[in-house]
Amino acid sequence: MQQYFIKGRAPRGVFQISDKDTAKHMFSVMRLQADEQIVLVFDDGIKRLARVVDSQHQSVEIIEELADNVELPVSVTIACGFPKGDKLEFLAQKTTELGVSQFWAFPADWSVVKWDEKKVAKKIEKLQKIVLGAAEQSKRNRVPQVSLFANQSDFLATFDQFDCVLIAYEESAKAGERATLIEVLTHFTGGEKILFIFGPEGGLSPDEIERFEIKGGRQVGLGPRIMRAETAPLYALTSVSVLTELMRA
C-alpha cells in the first residue's frame, strides 16, 4: 500500500491533496482511483488509513488511525564531514531507511569539497527529496530533518542538545576500542538523543577530535575493520537497531 507524507495537521472529513508533487504521484503516476486505500502521515507522525474519494478532484478521506510505529526507540543524528561525489546522496537515502532522525553534514578539516551558500542550498533541496522518498519507501513515521552546516563552529554549537555525542574515529578502532558503543546503547531506556560524527574520506583530524571532545564527545570504535566514509554510518545505525530494538523485542 502506498504511503505519503502530508504537511500540517490531519483534517476531518473529505479534503483535497494540495501538494502538487504528492498529488501528481498519487493520481498521475500511480493512477489511484475512487475507493483505493493509501496511508497518510501528517506532522504528528501517526499513520492513518485513507481512501480516495474522487481522483479527478484529488480528494481523499481518513478512515482510521493506525498503531504502526517503526521509528527507532532513540533519536539518532548522523553528521558526516562533507564527502566527495554523490556519497552524501547515498548516505541520506540509506540512513533514512535505517531509521535516522536527522541527517547532517559539515565541513571537516580534511574535506576535499568546498561548497558556497548557493551550492549548499541546492544540495539541501536535493537531499530533502531523497529522504522524503526513502521515508515513504521504508514506511517511516517521520521524515528525517536535513541540515548542512556552512562552518564547523555552528556544528559544534549543537552538541549541547544531545544526551550523547559519539565520534567514530579510526584510530580508536585500530587501538582495539570495542566497549563504548555497547556500553552507551545498552544503558539507554528510550527517547535519548544521540549524535554520531563521521569524517570524510580522509577521516577526522586530531584537532577536530580535540574540539569535539572538549564539547563532550566520546571516541568510539566500530569493530576491528576500517570502513569507508559511506559505510561507517550504516554500521552505526544497524548497531543501534540491534541493541535498542531487536535485543529488547
From TrEMBL:
<keyword id="KW-0489">Methyltransferase</keyword>
<dbReference type="InterPro" id="IPR029028">
    <property type="entry name" value="Alpha/beta_knot_MTases"/>
</dbReference>
<dbReference type="InterPro" id="IPR006700">
    <property type="entry name" value="RsmE"/>
</dbReference>
<dbReference type="Pfam" id="PF04452">
    <property type="entry name" value="Methyltrans_RNA"/>
</dbReference>
<keyword id="KW-0808">Transferase</keyword>
<protein>
    <recommendedName>
        <fullName>Ribosomal RNA small subunit methyltransferase E</fullName>
        <ecNumber>2.1.1.193</ecNumber>
    </recommendedName>
</protein>
<keyword id="KW-0949">S-adenosyl-L-methionine</keyword>
<keyword id="KW-0698">rRNA processing</keyword>
<dbReference type="GO" id="GO:0005737">
    <property type="term" value="C:cytoplasm"/>
</dbReference>
<comment type="function">
    <text>Specifically methylates the N3 position of the uracil ring of uridine 1498 (m3U1498) in 16S rRNA. Acts on the fully assembled 30S ribosomal subunit.</text>
</comment>
<dbReference type="InterPro" id="IPR046886">
    <property type="entry name" value="RsmE_MTase_dom"/>
</dbReference>
<dbReference type="InterPro" id="IPR015947">
    <property type="entry name" value="PUA-like_sf"/>
</dbReference>
<keyword id="KW-0963">Cytoplasm</keyword>
<dbReference type="GO" id="GO:0070042">
    <property type="term" value="F:rRNA (uridine-N3-)-methyltransferase activity"/>
</dbReference>
<dbReference type="InterPro" id="IPR029026">
    <property type="entry name" value="tRNA_m1G_MTases_N"/>
</dbReference>
<dbReference type="GO" id="GO:0070475">
    <property type="term" value="P:rRNA base methylation"/>
</dbReference>
<dbReference type="Pfam" id="PF20260">
    <property type="entry name" value="PUA_4"/>
</dbReference>
<feature type="domain" description="Ribosomal RNA small subunit methyltransferase E methyltransferase">
    <location>
        <begin position="71"/>
        <end position="240"/>
    </location>
</feature>
<dbReference type="InterPro" id="IPR046887">
    <property type="entry name" value="RsmE_PUA-like"/>
</dbReference>
<feature type="domain" description="Ribosomal RNA small subunit methyltransferase E PUA-like">
    <location>
        <begin position="19"/>
        <end position="64"/>
    </location>
</feature>
<comment type="similarity">
    <text>Belongs to the RNA methyltransferase RsmE family.</text>
</comment>
